[in-house]
Design brief:
By secondary structure, the chain is α/β, with parallel strands linked by helices. It has 19 helices and 12 strands. 44% of the residues lie in helices and 14% in strands. Strands 8-9-7-10-11-6-12 form a 7-stranded parallel β-sheet, sandwiched between helices. Strands 2-3-1-4-5 form a 5-stranded parallel β-sheet. Helix 7 runs antiparallel to helix 8. The longest helix has 19 residues. The two termini are 34 Å apart.
């Protein structure tokens, strides 16, 4: 929908246009739509990414490309290097700039892109919400809000599919509950609850119920996703998956050759999978309302048969996982959606018996001396750190000594900051990863630009 609005604006303006998107995948989706639905030809539409450097009458690039700069420090002045790609675009006479997913713009790393001059600016987003409260900065960076429509109104008009949202609550396993209670680190508490092994049992039962549907399994932690992908024998897409491989997997999913696709938070933005009609969220970025809405949006394309979309979020009861889930749902609740709360027992009838077996197993380990809670907690800390380092390229891995556990307001503030950073950096993470390898623009970039202006 945003792409169509953007193309309509381009047609009315009839001028040189720069489009900023969150990822290379989004760049190519824009190009495909423009060539399919307008009279523009391939020689008029340019891709400026880690793979190509084209500046044409209509140019599509990413926020990450424009804000990339080599980390070179001048020994004399102490200054860090300039933005090589950004300078190319500031010299161009743009008649229109379109900011896709404009809610990203207030991020400190991206807001410099608002300095590019143009006669007209257009910001597009379906989720104008940020956990740092900076969403209103968009209006000072771009301009006043021109149009806003509730999601439910779009649903009633048939522009998006009807969706049923379900929260499945389940207990934490006895061993994980013991770890959860004893740890003081807020982030590890959430990690323990988010990776609750019972979620995999519920997931498998839900997949049996939806064996004829096209299902996305979405999560936050790479190790968790790898384990689920292996257990389901399903392909996995993360920030480290090459774009060419992603394109193949996405096409297989669209063609129905793949019925279940496991994806990390790279699926939060700009993946075109119109036939996806079920999304199962197993973990997320703390209490991010934006992420919750983006993930629901993956399955809201209208279905050919008029069927409804199903969005499941798996939540560990009476933990920080449930607390964050409540906050995540606020934006969608404001849009008119409601969540059906169901107990995992309704989906996995044998769950009480399994919990009793796990409780007995824990008692046996305690009596035999196999149970070492301190070792398990230390393993949790190392696992969290390693998984963060392995997660989407573009995020800042944490290194050095173990941080002090945060509680109360300090913990909430730290979590909010982490949500903001993760949301902003995940949007185009693979582009920054490419830039670390590719770096400088081509030597003739400036000369090509001058020829195009002439």
């Amino acid at each position: 929908g945003k792409t169509v609005v953007g193309m309509g604006t381009m047609a009315q303006a009839g001028t040189q246009t720069l489009i900023l998107t969150p990822s290379t995948i989004a760049v190519r989706q824009w190009i495909t739509e423009i060539l399919d639905k307008t009279t523009l030809t391939a020689d008029q539409v340019g891709e400026y990414t880690g793979d190509k450097k084209e500046v044409k009458p209509v140019t599509i690039t990413t926020y990450q490309m424009l804000t990339y700069r080599p980390f070179r420090v001048d020994n004399k002045t102490g200054e860090i290097g300039e933005f090589p790609h950004f300078d190319i675009f500031t010299k161009h006479n743009w008649g229109l700039i379109i900011y896709d997913e404009v809610h990203l713009l207030p991020a400190p790393v991206f807001r410099i892109t608002a300095e590019i001059q143009a006669r007209r600016r257009l910001g597009l987003t379906a989720t104008l919400v940020r956990e740092d409260g900076r969403e209103t900065d968009v209006f000072s960076l771009i301009g006043p809000k021109k149009y806003d429509v509730p999601w439910k109104e779009l649903e009633q008009q048939g522009w998006i599919a009807t969706a049923q949202c379900t929260e499945v609550r389940m207990p934490l396993t006895p061993e994980e509950r013991a770890e959860y209670v004893l740890t003081e680190d807020s982030r590890i508490k959430y990690r323990i609850a988010a990776e609750n092994p019972i979620k995999t049992d519920v997931l498998e039962e839900l997949l049996k119920q939806h064996e004829d549907d096209s299902v996305l399994v979405i999560g936050q932690y790479i190790s968790q996703l790898k384990g689920i992908a292996a257990r389901l024998d399903a392909p996995l897409v993360t920030g480290k998956t090459p774009n060419a491989e992603r394109d193949v997997l996405y096409d297989d999913f669209r063609q129905g050759r793949i019925k279940v696709l496991v994806v990390s938070k790279v699926a939060n933005f700009a993946i075109d999978l119109p036939d996806a009609n079920v999304a199962i969220q197993i973990s997320g970025t703390f209490g991010s309302r934006q992420e919750e809405a983006q993930r629901l949006g993956r399955i809201l394309r209208p279905k050919k048969d008029g069927s409804i979309a199903n969005f499941y979020t798996l939540v560990t009861r009476d933990t920080k996982d449930q607390d964050f889930s409540t906050n995540r749902q606020l934006f969608l609740t404001e849009q008119g959606y409601s969540y059906n709360i169901v107990d995992a027992i309704d989906i996995v009838p044998g769950l009480p018996a399994k919990m009793a077996e796990l409780e007995a197993e824990l008692e046996r380990k305690k009596l035999s001396g196999e149970w070492d809670i301190e070792a398990r907690l230390e393993s949790q800390h190392r696992g969290t750190k390693a998984d963060e380092d392995e997660s989407e390229p573009g995020e800042k891995p944490r290194r050095g000594r173990k941080p002090k556990a945060k509680t109360g307001k300090d913990a909430q503030s730290a979590e909010a900051n982490e949500v903001n950073e993760a949301e902003d950096m995940a949007a185009g993470a693979e582009d920054q990863h490419q830039q670390k390898r590719r770096g400088r623009p081509p030597k003739n970039a400036g000369r090509d630009h001058l020829r195009l202006v002439k």
